[in-house]
Amino acid sequence: MKNWKRAATGTVAAGLLVALVMKIVGQSFMTIGNLLFMVGLALIVFGAICVLLKGHLFTGWRHLWHRKDKVDPLPGEKVPVKHVASVKNSPIVVNTFARFGLVSGICYIILGVVFTI
Fold it and tell me: Where are the transmembrane segments (predicted)?
């Protein structure tokens, strides 16, 4: 079992433990389900941000900005167009933090729906 799988499993188990403690304290299942759902949404947003960080969204942007101002870039700042195209067309990278966030978030959302029903 890989580290992100172990971390995701531990996080979901900790969430279930917190839900059990909340039920013992006297919270309703609706409140527990809403809390788990919101934590799941936050983890999915975290996973999406981790995917977008590796997306090279601003590659070549600085080069275009210099051209708009009619100022020639310095020799070290000039980026070849083929390099920008190859970087932007590279496959999507889903790193371990993104996998952890997406898997844990989906599990929390499923648990939140189950607790709400």
Answer: 33-53, 92-115
Tell whether the torsion through CA atoms of 72, 77, 83 and 86 is positive or negative.
Answer: negative
**How many other CB atoms are there within 10 angstroms of residue 89's CB atom?**
8
Per-residue pLDDT of the chain (117 residues; tens, 9 = 90+): 468 788 888 888 888 898 889 889 988 889 988 999 999 999 999 999 888 887 777 666 655 555 555 566 556 566 667 777 777 777 777 888 888 899 899 999 998 998 888
Could you state, in order of their start, the residue ranges of all structural domains in the chain? Answer: 3-116
Do 74 and 90 touch, CB atoms closer than 8 A? no
Contacts of 42 (CB under 8 A, 6+ apart): 105
- For residues 34 and 116, is the Cβ–Cβ distance under 8 A? yes
Does the predicted TM-score (pTM) go above 0.85? no
